[in-house]
Design goal:
309 residues; alpha/beta; FAD/NAD(P)-binding domain; 6-stranded mixed sheet; two-stranded antiparallel sheet; 28% helix
Length: 309
């Protein structure tokens, strides 16, 4: 029986996205001579922001300065008129980060980890469509929650019908096909952020879009305004320390501000008024009251309990 080739490393990191890259860099800062290998199924770094997943008008809805590593500012070239970060900017930023910190040579691209088994004090990894085996002393999983597409089962009405089915994950690689004039009508299934992005992209291509959202579940994703009160970026507001007191959290239960906002009548009234105002601004921005077709996108909430953000 032919033995399987085994590669031994000190640390194996699955995923070359935001967390995989910074994990590798941090570990190497502490142990510069460690044998660290990053494994990723794509052909470039970035995870959800890899080159294969990019397409025109893909924007992160985050202002420049709020979507980068704390020690590495993101260059402003390519930002939108409102200083929003684009998908291309994020991919280029992560690619440069990997190159600057000598991580590219440590990445094994186009490789999918199929199985990870504990063998004594080490881990043994096997890969899809490969006989290679990797053994590592430490295993770090940084695959995120949006790496594996969930495809619905679509029944064909006739054997000769061939309708292309594309997951939002593959909009980048399918962009050229979607541009074709032969494709005029497209059905989008789902109500998460990727569905909103897909609908917007298809409408910008001049397609007729039918949007299907299942009746059960939590309803569509909330449409938040890019700016609050006409001047403050929503993500920037959410990143302030004050916001840690606007929502109850078991990680923040001490201090005079906490006692004011959550244990006094005036403070609780202020918290309630803040979220009522944000809700009003969000509903007005989204235009939920402009017609039945938009009203159907209103997020569903359980009225029997209070929801603070």
């Amino acid at each position: 029986m032919e033995s399987q080739p085994v590669t031994a490393v000190d640390v194996a990191i699955i995923g070359a996205g935001w967390y995989g890259l910074v994990t590798a860099r941090t570990y190497l800062r502490l142990r510069p001579h460690a044998n660290v290998t990053i494994i990723d199924s794509d052909s470039t770094v970035g995870g959800v922001w890899s080159k294969e997943r990019l397409y025109p008008n893909l924007v992160a809805q985050v202002k420049l300065g709020f979507f980068n590593y704390s020690d590495t500012p993101m260059p402003g070239q390519g930002a939108t008129r409102s200083q929003l970060v684009t998908g291309t900017m994020i991919h280029d930023y992560l690619s440069k980060y990997a190159a600057d910190h000598d991580l590219l040579r440590r990445i094994r691209f186009n490789t999918t980890v199929e199985r990870a088994v504990r063998c004594g004090t080490r881990w043994r990894l096997s890969f899809k469509d490969s006989k290679d085996v990797m053994e590592t002393g430490k295993l770090i999983v940084a695959t995120g929650v949006t790496s594996k597409p969930h495809m619905p089962v679509a029944a064909q009405t006739t054997n000769s019908l061939t309708v292309p089915i594309v997951h939002s994950r593959d909009l980048g690689t399918s962009y050229s096909m979607l541009q074709s004039e032969k494709i005029q009508n497209v059905v989008v299934v789902g109500a998460a952020k990727s569905a909103y992005d897909a609908v917007y992209l298809l409408l910008s291509l001049g397609k007729k879009v039918t949007w299907i959202i299942r009746p059960d579940g939590a309803g569509p994703l909330a449409i938040l305004p890019m700016e609050l009160f006409g001047r403050f970026n929503s993500i920037a507001v959410a990143s302030t320390r004050l916001m840690t007191y606007m929502s109850p959290s078991i990680l923040n239960t001490d201090g005079s501000l906490y006692r004011f906002f959550h244990r006094s009548r005036l403070g609780r009234w202020c918290v309630g008024m803040f979220w009522d105002t944000v809700t009003y601004l969000s509903h007005r921005h989204a235009g939920y009251g402009d017609g039945d077709h938009v009203a159907g996108l209103t997020p569903e909430m359980n009225n029997k309990r209070h929801v603070f953000g």
